[in-house]
Amino acid sequence: MAERQKIALIAHDKMKDEMAAFARRHQTYLAGWQIVATGTTGGRVQEACPTLDVIRMKSGPLGGDQQIGAMIAQEEVAMLIFFVDPLTPMPHDVDVKALMRLAILYDTPMALNRATADRLLPVIAE
Ligand SMILES: O=C(CO)COP(=O)(O)O
């Protein structure tokens, strides 16, 4: 079984500022982990924290959520941090749901908002 050496970061469009601020705030915890992110989120995180090792997948609506779901199914992901926009309907809603289902199935710690992510990341990443 592959070791869970990745932390996955995903944020919907209206949540990207919050994700960039989150990554900056927790940069010391994230350093040393392989960060995987959907395309646009990864770009924002890399810009906010140039020293982090960020691997960018496709953008969410183009399959990025599914790519990260596959990593979860391979048991490579130690934690999923997904800042979901609860107010905007999205064309790839089924992909979002599938990603969350895999995180539940593979018992992957998953933070869907800032309050949870702030508390959980230090415990998992230290
Ligand atoms: O849509 C997303 C997650 O469902 C995020 O994708 P981007 O990071 O490419 O915007």
Automatic annotation (TrEMBL):
Keywords: Lyase. Its EC number is 4.2.3.3. The active site is at residue 65. It holds the Pfam family MGS. Residues 1-126 form the MGS-like domain. The keyword Lyase applies. Gene3D superfamilies: Methylglyoxal synthase-like domain (3.40.50.1380). It is an enzyme of class 4 (lyase). Substrate binds at residues 12, 16, 38-41, 59-60, 92. The keyword Lyase applies. GO terms for biological process: methylglyoxal biosynthetic process. It catalyses: dihydroxyacetone phosphate = methylglyoxal + phosphate. GO terms for cellular component: cytosol. Catalyzes the formation of methylglyoxal from dihydroxyacetone phosphate. Belongs to the methylglyoxal synthase family. This is Methylglyoxal synthase.
